[in-house]
């Protein structure tokens, strides 16, 4: 998946596990940028009685680099506090939750948001409300209203933190079954499966989102419309389980345990032995992982898994062709002149996995889920919108679709346009992304899902 | 970037990296050691008295601005060389004290 359970250690710590990161010029407020960082993967909506919540002992951050050095110039920090109103009941709520202040909501979470920039720390808001999880029609009869009330405006930004519907889609079960793509399953080297349309592994699941909407003018500097975005989660260095209290004691400096910029980088490109290390490092250290991007193992696998389907790609792999196209897309941004005379996501020569967004490119009136591959310059890899089919985009890029951008002599294999996990269409999302903040759909209720 | 660099600095200043697994193992060992430090007069209550860190929101650099209102966790990395890490609030201090390490080890029994 994009970054769900993508590394061995963080897969054991879902509260701190970043799953997806989105950054886009807000379609309904094009003078702002919206950034959404999702955590806590694969939430089964009915997962009570202790429903999903952010970690009180985790420091969540959204970072923005606005000068291309791969280091954060602005960081938004989020710390959560959970309050149990009545410890003598096992219930998450003791009656319908009709407002965020309703005393029937027993386990309440609030958060503080702060900004670190230029060496100074600014508290932007304290005690901001999260909505409850979407329990069901008896407990949360007007969930959309609760979520709307949990949108706060503080310090010049709009912010939301709470449960939302998963917008990311992927055929996880097939892809990690030896790289099977169901639409091409009949051509797979191992077995005799029939081709199929694809199964969405995240169907009707929820995530926890931290979303901010900030003025473009507040996150860019003059002459540099491209920003680099990533999210991190950190825990304190020492953690001891206090058996007398049944809780953890935390002490010491914050250490990063999760990082996410571009989708699928740590999940698919970084090898198993380096994934945990990758999660602890900032983007400006990514040069050490460069070869995993320019010589991706997946590219070498494709012609093995689908014998004879990728002869041109196989030749490029055999020739040890450095994939400058992938380096540009994921690690430096695409320089001006590669796509056309104006398009660029380039931030400079520093190798850094950041989700790059050119804030001077207006939102598309009719977004195309294949983004740049479909000539939609407002979509991935120019930022990422909730509907962008990043799995197909990156699979096709690795398969050679973007190599001609830097090597005009290379002709992509004929099959490349069919490299996808869903065919003929991506799956329908039950509660799809919306057109306004926080953009991800209303979370599925535990009463309704699984159905 | 201040926040991130400070995080890195606090992690990397030891010159050695701790995996999260070894950290948990070490911290669990240090729980008893922490009690020993308290018994020797260091500020702060015993670990059992606290159920949540009092860490401030902002990341703090190595050894700076440690508040001793919360627990103090001691990680004896190597009792033979006296290599000790002490965690409090969002601060961290690295000591090299063979006598202290020996006393902690004796306290554990």
Counted by DSSP, the helix tally of chain A is: 10
Number of extended strands of chain B: 3
The gyration radius over C-alpha positions of chain B equals: 14 Å
Q: State the share of residues found in helices of chain A, binned by percent.
A: 10-25%
Low-pLDDT residue intervals, each spanning 5 or more residues of chain A: none
**Average pLDDT score of chain B:** 57
Protein chains sharing the most extensive interface: A-B, 47 and 47 residues
Beta-strand proportion of chain A: 25-35%
Strand line-up across the major sheet of chain B: 1-2-3
Number of DSSP helical runs of chain B: 3
* C-alpha end-to-end distance of chain A: 23 Å
For the residues shown, what is the average pLDDT of chain A?
97
Cα separation of the termini of chain B: 45 Å
**Assembly state of the chains shown:** heterodimer
**Which regions of chain B have little confidence, pLDDT < 50, spanning 5+ residues?**
1-67
Overall shape of chain B: globular
Largest sheet of chain A: 7 strands, antiparallel
Structural class of chain A, by secondary structure, is alpha+beta
- The fraction of residues assigned to DSSP E strands of chain B is 15-25%
Q: How many beta-strand segments of chain A?
A: 12
């Amino acid at each position: 998946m994009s970054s769900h359970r993508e590394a061995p250690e963080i897969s054991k710590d879902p509260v701190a596990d970043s799953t997806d990161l989105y950054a886009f010029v807000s379609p309904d407020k094009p003078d702002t940028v919206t950034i959404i960082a999702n955590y806590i993967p694969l939430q089964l909506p009915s997962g009570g009685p202790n429903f999903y919540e952010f970690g009180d002992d985790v420091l969540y951050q959204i970072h923005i680099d606005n000068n291309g050095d791969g280091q954060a110039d602005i960081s938004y920090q989020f710390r959560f506090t959970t309050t149990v109103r009545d410890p003598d009941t096992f219930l998450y709520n003791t009656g319908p939750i009709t407002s965020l202040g309703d005393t029937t909501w027993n386990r309440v979470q609030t958060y503080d948001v702060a900004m670190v920039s230029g060496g100074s720390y600014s508290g932007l808001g304290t005690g901001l409300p999260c909505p409850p999880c979407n329990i069901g029609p008896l407990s949360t009869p007007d969930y959309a209203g609760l979520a709307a009330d949990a949108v706060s405006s503080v310090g010049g930004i709009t912010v939301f933190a709470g449960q939302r519907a998963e917008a990311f889609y992927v055929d996880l079960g097939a892809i990690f079954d030896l790289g099977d793509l169901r639409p091409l399953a009949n051509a797979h080297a191992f077995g005799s499966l029939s081709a199929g349309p694809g199964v969405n592994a995240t169907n009707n699941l929820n995530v926890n989102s931290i979303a901010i909407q900030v003025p473009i003018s507040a996150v860019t500097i003059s002459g540099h419309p491209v920003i680099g975005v990533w999210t991190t989660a950190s825990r304190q260095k020492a953690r001891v389980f206090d058996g007398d209290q049944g809780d953890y004691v935390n002490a010491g400096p914050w250490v990063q345990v999760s990082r996410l910029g571009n989708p699928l980088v740590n999940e698919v490109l970084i090898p198993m032995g380096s994934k945990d290390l990758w999660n602890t490092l900032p983007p400006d250290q990514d040069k050490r992982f460069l070869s995993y991007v320019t010589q991706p193992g997946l590219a070498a696998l494709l012609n093995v898994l689908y014998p004879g389907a990728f002869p041109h790609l196989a030749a490029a792999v055999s020739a040890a062709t450095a994939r400058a196209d992938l380096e540009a897309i994921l690690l430096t941004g695409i320089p001006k002149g590669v796509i056309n005379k104006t398009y660029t996501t380039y931030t400079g020569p520093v190798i850094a996995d950041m989700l790059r967004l050119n804030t001077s490119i207006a939102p598309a009136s009719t977004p195309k889920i294949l983004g740049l591959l479909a000539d939609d310059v407002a979509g991935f890899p120019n930022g990422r919108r909730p509907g962008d089919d990043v799995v197909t985009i990156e699979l096709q890029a690795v398969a050679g679709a973007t190599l001609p951008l830097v090597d005009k002599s290379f002709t992509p294999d004929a099959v490349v346009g069919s490299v996808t996990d869903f065919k003929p269409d991506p799956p329908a999302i039950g509660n799809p992304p919306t057109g306004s903040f926080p953009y991800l759909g209303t979370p599925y209720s535990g009463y309704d899902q699984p159905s | 970037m201040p926040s991130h660099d400070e995080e890195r600095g606090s992690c990397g200043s030891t010159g050695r990296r701790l995996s999260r697994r070894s950290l948990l193992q070490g911290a669990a060992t240090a729980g008893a050691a922490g009690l020993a430090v308290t018994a020797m007069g260091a500020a702060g209550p015993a670990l059992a008295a606290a159920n949540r860190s009092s860490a401030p929101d902002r990341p703090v650099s190595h050894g700076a601005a440690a508040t001793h209102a919360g627990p103090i966790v001691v990680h004896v990395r190597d009792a033979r060389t006296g290599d000790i890490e002490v965690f409090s609030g969002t601060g961290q201090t690295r000591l090299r004290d063979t006598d202290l390490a020996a006393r902690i080890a004796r306290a554990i029994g």
